[in-house]
Amino acid sequence: MLKKRLLLAVCWCLVLCLCACDGMLEQQESLPPDESFTSGIYSEPTEETDEESSFEESEHSTSVEDEYSFEESFEESFEEAVGDEIISGDYGYILVEDVAHLSAYYGSETTVELPDELDGHSLTVITKTAFSGNDKIEELKIGNGVVNVSEGAFDGCSALKTIELGGNVASMESSSFDRCPALEKIEVSSANMYFSSVDGVLFNRDKSVLIRCPMGYSAEEYVIPSHTKTVGAYAFKKCSGIEKIEIGGCSLSEGSFFHCDNLSEISFTTAVKEIPDYCFFGSVMLTELVLEDGTESLGEYAFFGCVALEKLTLPESISYIADTAFDYCDALSDVQTEGDYAEQWYEEFKK
What we know:
Layout: H1 2-30, H2 50-82, E1 86-88, E2 91-96, E3 99-105, E4 111-113, E5 117-118, E6 121-126, E7 139-141, E8 148-149, E9 162-165, E10 185-188, E11 195-198, E12 201-204, E13 209-212, E14 221-223, E15 230-231, E16 244-247, E17 265-268, E18 274-275, E19 288-290, E20 297-298, E21 311-314, E22 320-321, E23 334-337, H3 340-350
Parallel strand pairs: 3-6, 4-7, 6-8, 7-9, 9-10, 13-15, 14-16, 16-17, 18-20, 19-21, 20-22, 21-23
Antiparallel strand pairs: 1-2, 2-3, 5-6, 11-12, 12-13
């Protein structure tokens, strides 16, 4: 009897050991592969295995679902907290602590001037749903009561040509004007302490930051003003009317000239230290690019898809070029390089 019990105990130990080993192997197989370090010199992408792809997809999908669930529950609780939409004439609004948040415009007028109050409540916020996707409004004037314009508030206003911001607008994002192809001018009240406008282009108050050039801007050539220190992120996004840009004495941001489809000439009067990620992404008409000495780095996808680009001059100061900076620039054949790094990069790029 004792021998049987000992034999049974030994068998259980063997089973537990085998399960533990199998679990360790499964855990090891599920770990992501080691990432290799890159120097910024162009190299061919490696093929991704099915296991790596499935691992990344499962990780990503889980995090996105969790984030969506959180945001969805937050928005639902917010709606419950502030109550239902109230209709006042052509406007819909939500009352938050006795202040009106504009949630919708139901009218069909082409020219709209927002009231300062709705049903006796100060109108201070324009939410992201207020005008998004409107295809009727051509002119919009925002009064002095509005303080906050939510991100995406005018996104997709396909007929909008002119917008005027009142004297108290203090918070607004560049992306509020996405997908407004007819927009020619963004005007700002002279009383506004946060924003300003020069020839229809939106700046901060002291004009040191160029925030947004409207997509329908009509000038074929645009010169960045000398007082401008920074061109903001996606400031000229899809400004298809601009063919020439002159840049000097300022820094650029991610996507500053993203998809300027007709941009054929870029002139740097002084060196720009960094060309950030996506900066000139999709400039399909650009044929020649001369970077001044003092330019040090070119970010990811900086000139991605510049399919007509044939001539390129890289100065000695260049010390980093992202692997994807010139992806899909297949016409690039005449490259002038100065310095060891630029020469090494071009040798790799030609392979």
